[in-house]
Amino acid sequence: MASKATGKNGLQPSAPLPPAMAELQSQSTEKVLEEMNRLPLFMTTLDETDGDGNENPGLEALKALAYEGTRAEIAQNFREQGNECARAKQWTDAKEFYDKAIAALRGPQQAPEPDAEQQIVEELDPEVEAKKEKEIEEACYINRALCNLEKKNYGSCIRDCASTLRVNPRNVKALYRSGSACLALDKLAEAVDACNHGLDLDPTNTSLKSLSSKITTRQAYIASVEKARQEREQKAASEKATLKLALKSRGVLARSTDQAPDMEDAAIKLAQPLDPSSELTFPVLLLYPAHSQTDFIKAFSEKEKLELHLEYIFPLPWDEDHEYTVDNVETYMETAAGGLIKAGKKMALGTILGSGKVEVTDGLVRISVLPKSRATGWIEEFKRRKPKN
């Protein structure tokens, strides 16, 4: 009695392998899986080679099938694949398939291959094919519009909706998606137009009704924001005019330059912004030119005297010789003509500014403070620096 063949693992095969697969018996499991992955039916990862660095014939043949047939057949194939991706919310992949479907509709028309058993090729009916292509084109444009809407490519969505409506002006989905994209871009007039047109075609459409409500809400919000902006601008203009009137009525000279310092929220202000007779306050910069130091007073009332502020500012932390005391300093301001006047420490700031001799530049009052012993020398130096007219 003949003995039975035994495999490498000691087990007896139930039947011999077919000749085409006999060589697999001597290969490792990894090698068998690698070979199977080159077959389109068993692929788990994309392998486009045949193992020798060339093209995978099986895969190339499968890919070529996608472009066989009439324009409508090719486009329909891509459309269905796009629909599958869209159902899985794979918007990027779905869009690519719709791109290919639309491109196929623009390609040359191909007659179907003759059947193996029937060698006579039936002629295409142009009207039937045109109708199929129109239906597929409309579906691909409107579905691609959905992909773009989900991907927030609002401009592309609007263009796809326009293409859909050129094919079918009564496509309600195109009007809804176009309106949604316009709303996202705050193109409210266009959103209203698309929504209203859609409701004219389908008055009971709940999606369009919901969109209309969203548009109305957004319009109300934008209107309220615009109203608030206008009120702020009007208030600011009124306050600016009132401040100008207040300065003029007090005889205070003021001018602006293109080199205004950044003072954050410090500014010339009225206690009651719309009442020119209310108390004025000024930002004041105290300069100590003999020591290249400064102090800043954010709100100096027109009714206050300079000595009031000097009393709490002195002594100065850097004044090692104790030269700066209220009684031992003199204060000066530059005139509008470029000279100097002595500003009395016991005079109210409003009185000094209302004299018509000094001017407030860029909303800031500047006062130079010097020890009496240094004042004469500083004044002479100031005169030498000033150009003569």
UniProtKB/TrEMBL annotation:
Please state every residue range assigned to the domain named Cns1/TTC4 wheel: 273-382
Identify the Pfam families for this entry. Wheel
Q: Does the keyword Secreted apply?
A: no
Record-linked SUPFAM superfamilies: TPR-like (SSF48452)
Question: GO terms for CC?
Answer: cytosol; nucleus
Q: Name one GO biological process term.
A: protein folding
Q: Which Gene3D superfamilies match?
A: Tetratricopeptide repeat domain
Repeat as a keyword of this entry, yes or no, is: yes
Q: Which InterPro entries match?
A: Csn1/TTC4_wheel, TPR-like_helical_dom_sf, TPR_rpt
The record's listing under SMART domains reads: TPR (SM00028)
Query: Which family does the record assign?
Result: Belongs to the TTC4 family.
Protein name, per record: Cns1/TTC4 wheel domain-containing protein
Lineage of the species this protein comes from: Eukaryota, Fungi, Dikarya, Ascomycota, Pezizomycotina
